[in-house]
Amino acid sequence: MMSIKDGAEVNGLRVEMLVAWVTAEKVYSQLNVDCVLTEGTGGKHGVGSLHYVGLAIDLRTRNFLNTRIEKEVADEIRERLGSQYDVVLEDDHIHIEYQPK
After folding, report:
1. Mind listing the pLDDT tens digit for each residue in 19-72?
2. Using CA atoms, how far apart are residues 48 and 89, in angstroms rounded to an integer?
């Protein structure tokens, strides 16, 4: 199941990020874990962050049992999305951004 965290901004997300979110949800669903988008275009991010232009999303990871599973999920999402996306496992979320090479 896909859901949006209360207060997360999604206005202005580009279609590339919707593709990423749907792809990630398929990986999450294999583990019976909800795929919660915790931030899209809002929040506080570094200067030049792709969040501000609708090309990045963050997904919750706290529902996974351990960091090994989080890493496997991030790796599977990265493989499915391909080289045009960067998928980074952060301390408390998976960050996905569209950045064609």
Report:
1. 999 999 999 999 999 999 999 999 888 888 999 999 999 999 999 988 899 999
2. 19
Residue 57: both structure tokens together:
């999303």
Beta strands 93-98; 35-39: pairing state = unpaired
Question: Between the CA of residue 62 and those of 19, 29, 44, 53, 94, what are the distances in Å?
Answer: 22, 15, 20, 26, 10
Helices (H), the chain: 15-30, 67-81
Least Cα distance to 94 among 78, 75, 74 occurs for 74
Which residues, other chains included, contact 30 with Cβ-Cβ below 8 Å and sequence gap of 6+? none
